[in-house]
Amino acid sequence: MKAKVEGLYALTPEMADTERLLFLVGEALAGGARLVQYRNKSGDVALRHEQATELKLLCHRHGVPLIINDDVRLAALTEADGVHLGAEDASLLEARVNLGPDKLIGVSCYQDLARAERLTAAGADYVAFGSCFPSPTKPLAPLCPLTLITEARQKLAVPIVAIGGITPENAPAVIAAGAHAVAVISALFEAPDVRDAAARFSRLFATRSDEEKSTR
């Protein structure tokens, strides 16, 4: 059964210190992160394989899926729980053929609802929109209006992930717009206390769940 895409989606910072990376991700998981995506753009194949393997073991101890950013081959080699694809990465079909029907495949849709509709019809398990706010990770990324997330929530039958400059302070607006999950790097892993930051994000989704129950 595929993992549920909801809540805090932790995107790892790029670092060569595997022990430090595992510590930080462990803190995020302890604070309530519901998914983890391994991101490392370096050309160090051995390091990336080592880190992805160790992260998968860590995530699975917490009952949380590990998604690999961009690299279908690495996802297959490490038997990760899925892959996330951007516009310039492998095709959705290639990823599905290599990973099989039970792995999560997410796609970046930027500010393009038509792309999201097309890839959802082709079998994407979730779609990501952004940048929702100015982002220190991608400062030149065009901004995605929150109204687009609301429209996507109304039209699409898959989970919607919001990304880009999301903090505990502005996340409520993204969640209210319809996002099932928020993908976060800087506001999580650059926080003085990663576990506390994760818990702050996680409580926002618990509050929404309680509000939804009260309206039924």
Gist?
The protein is of the alpha/beta class and 216 residues long.
Describe the fold and architecture.
The protein has helices spanning 18-30, 45-61, 72-77, 92-99, 113-121, 146-155, 171-177, 186-189, 194-214, and strands at 7-11, 35-38, 66-69, 82-85, 104-110, 126-129, 160-163, 181-184. It starts with 6 loop residues before the first strand and ends with a helix. The protein has a single domain (7-214), classed as Aldolase class I (TIM Barrel, Alpha-Beta Barrel), CATH 3.20.20.70. The chain is α/β, with parallel strands linked by helices and 216 residues long. Strands 1-2-3-4-5-6-7-8 form an eight-stranded parallel barrel, surrounded by seven helices. Helices cover 44% and strands 17% of the residues.
Features:
TIM Barrel; alpha/beta; globular; 8-stranded parallel beta barrel; 9 helices; 216 residues
